[in-house]
Amino acid sequence: MKKGYASRMWAREWPMHLMMLPAVLLIVLFSYIPFAGLAIAFERFNPSKGFFGSPFVGWDNFEYVVKMPGFGQVLWNTVYIACMKIAGGLLVPVAFALLLNEVVSTKFKRTVQTLIYLPHFLSWVILGGVLTDILSPSGGLVSSLLGWLGADPVFFLGDEKTFPYVLVVTDIWKEFGFGTIIYLAAITSINPVLYEAALCDGASRWRQVWHITLPGMAPIIVLMMTLSLGNVLNAGFDQVFNLYSPVVYRTGDILDTLVYRLGLVDAQYGVATAVGLFKSVVSSFCIVVSYICAYRFANYRIF
Amino acid sequence: MNRTGMGRSAFQLLNYALLACVAIACVAPLVNVLAISLSESAYAAAGSVKLWPVHFTIESYIYAFQDKLLLPSYWISVQRVALGVAINMFLTILVAYPLSKEVREFRLRTYYVWLLFITILFNGGLIPWYVTIRQLNLMDSLWALILPSAVPVFNCILLLNFFRQLPKELQESAHVDGAGHWTILWRIMVPLSKPALATLVLFACVNHWNAWFDGLILMKRPEHYPLQTYLQTKVISFNANALLGATKEELESLMAVSDRTLKAAQIFLAALPIMCVYPFLQKYFVKGIVMGSVKE
């Protein structure tokens, strides 16, 4: 009888195992084998000898990284830039969605929406090219605008002081339209009866926003906040890589770009993997915490 | 009452003005680059081009097409999108269906879900990933750009959540009528999920079209670069190398050299396909973003 049950289950389930098979194979190949490859962080890696044939050196690579001049600065840059992006990336779309919600004309609203999330769909290679051009101190669009206002041209991408802020502002510029859509969707799902009731009670527009719209958006804001926690070490490789130059390494270099230069330019595989492993471990911790928080505070379950 | 009315219209006026300014700020840089690409290079170098071409010419585009690597890189990108998206979607559908079942219907579901989910929580980082692909002998082939990202885990989760919202009775009645899993998936689930699938196709297309870094490190020969990688080496790496060790003054003059119109043309050629489909996509993207974030 028991055997009959098992074989019946197998007969029903095997097509589903078969459906999973190709994806599982690919994931093992390209995600799990690299986990094993993290062994490189503890080796003096020799590509011809592979992951497990290279000489083992213990924590040497990590010691090297910690003693490397400027590593602390890179770590600081990463966290500083990432945190500013997280904060701006939360506040700006919320504010923008609230302002856009006050617009009466649907046509105007839709046009603005269409325009603001165009940059989201372009790669950082394209935007890097565009920004390098418009931010150029000689003849760029921004510096002519500054000149028109009577200010001196600023070399935004070539100045240590301005570079991190350029990263933050341009990142918000690229992504805020996308966030705005999410918050607008949350606003439109608020029951209109609440506003009618508030109007009867003589509540002003401000009061309505404060007591109805914002609380209505609160769950999604909390969710976005908790999920963005996982990005504390993601300062945006694509963006930095396409905008930075050696003159701004001091304030603009981040962990990911450091890994790239150490590993793929200087071929110091062990050291680069050590930095990468450090980043992965801290990031994983943050992501796990963020999912737990999202589950606790926003009742969010990913699957 | 009258005062609040006045305040309200003043606010509306300011609000419209602000929103319009921000919207313009989002597209003005792109319009500027387009205008530069269509201007005579002397005027572009002098910085006198704003939002409209000065002395209209398409010379920079003729120049851009003279580079023998441009069209092949377009072709590689097209192949990559076609093949990559087809594989992405096929695998997403195949994975989402079994995982949308309850544990009593598919006993190992939880294990499979965790196998996928762990790849979101943790990743090996750039170097082990790169070394793995090199050990697998995929370097310099189109497959290196497609296979490593063949299973988009986030999309799988979106689709499996979508499948779970569909009425269970449909699957059950089909099962009673003797339909197998394969038939249920392709004849019932997929047709019912067309809007969700359209969104995922578009996500996958944009991802593949915009990817550049894998091309840069996994392709050895420039003839094998996809378009975005080609653009990266032409427009951006060139700068970075030229700037190495230059003083601030040298930097400023280097950044102003007059291949400005050429670069603008190259940038615009790479952005063009996305800009062409963009108006048609946005309806689906809005749906998809909302689907992914506001889950029941």
TrEMBL record, chain A:
Any one cellular-component term (Gene Ontology): plasma membrane
Top-rank lineage group of the source organism: Bacteria
GO biological process, alphabetically ordered: transmembrane transport
Keyword annotations of the record: Cell membrane, Membrane, Transmembrane, Transmembrane helix, Transport
Major site of localization recorded for this protein: membrane
Protein topology in the membrane: Multi-pass membrane protein
Domain ABC transmembrane type-1: from-to ranges: 75-290
Coiled coil: none
Keyword tRNA-binding assigned: no
Entry-linked InterPro entries: MetI-like (IPR000515), MetI-like_sf (IPR035906), UgpAE/MalFG_permease (IPR050809)
One Pfam family hit: BPD_transp_1
Cited Gene3D superfamilies: MetI-like
Membrane-spanning residues: 79-100, 121-149, 176-197, 209-233, 269-294
Subcellular location: Cell membrane
Family under the similarity heading: Belongs to the binding-protein-dependent transport system permease family.
PANTHER family: BLL4140 PROTEIN
The protein, known as: ABC transporter permease subunit
Species of origin: Cohnella rhizosphaerae
Automatic annotation (TrEMBL), chain B:
Biological processes per GO annotation: transmembrane transport
Membrane topology: Multi-pass membrane protein
Coiled-coil intervals, chain numbering: none
Family statement drawn from the similarity comment of this UniProt entry: Belongs to the binding-protein-dependent transport system permease family.
Protein name: Carbohydrate ABC transporter permease
Subcellular location: Cell membrane
Classification via Pfam families: BPD_transp_1
Any one GO CC term of the record: plasma membrane
PROSITE patterns xrefs: ABC_TM1, PROKAR_LIPOPROTEIN
Parts of the chain that traverse the membrane: 81-99, 111-131, 143-163, 184-209, 264-281
Domain ABC transmembrane type-1: 74-281
Keyword annotations from UniProtKB, A to Z: Cell membrane, Membrane, Transmembrane, Transmembrane helix, Transport
Major localisation: membrane
